[in-house]
Design brief:
Number of helices: 2
Strand content: 25-35%
Distance between the termini: 82 Å
Shape: flat
CATH topology of one domain: Lipocalin
Radius of gyration: 31 Å
Largest sheet: 10 strands, antiparallel
Length: 179
Amino acid sequence: MNFSKSGLVAVSLAALVASGCSTSRFSSMDDQQPAPLPAAPAGQVSSNQLPPPASPGATDPSQFPTAPANTQVASLPPDGSAPAGASDLSAASVAGVWNASVSGQSCKIATPQTKFGAGFRAGPLHCPAPIDGIKSWNVAGKQLTLYDENGGSLARLYSSGGSKFDGQTSNGQPISLTR
């Protein structure tokens, strides 16, 4: 008798499939029903004031980063114009990783030149609200604007010379970026 290799493989495969279908290993499980779950607890519902939220993983205030005591943030003119001495900006001058200070709390913000929406993608790292919601950034003239996921302005900043930007968030908090 002379069998081909493919014929032998086909017969072996058919035997394996047929033996797998006739197993009785799982037949005892068909009769078992899972135990019913206990009912949800019932009772009175009360409401109390919750304490203010804490950062995930932080349990004491000493774990929160803060800006050095001698950090000063330049104030912006009340009419929204650029401060005296602010220089014109380019995307290349803003691209990179920045140390941010928002009302004395420190974090980092990445500003790569990856196109995103009407500007470039941005990535905050452990930043306080509202800066934790930054999704993009763009420059126009002398102004750097940081945007949320809906394209709303979260902060506007101006160059303070060198590698430093100062400004304020949309809710009036001082913000500065340094390298």
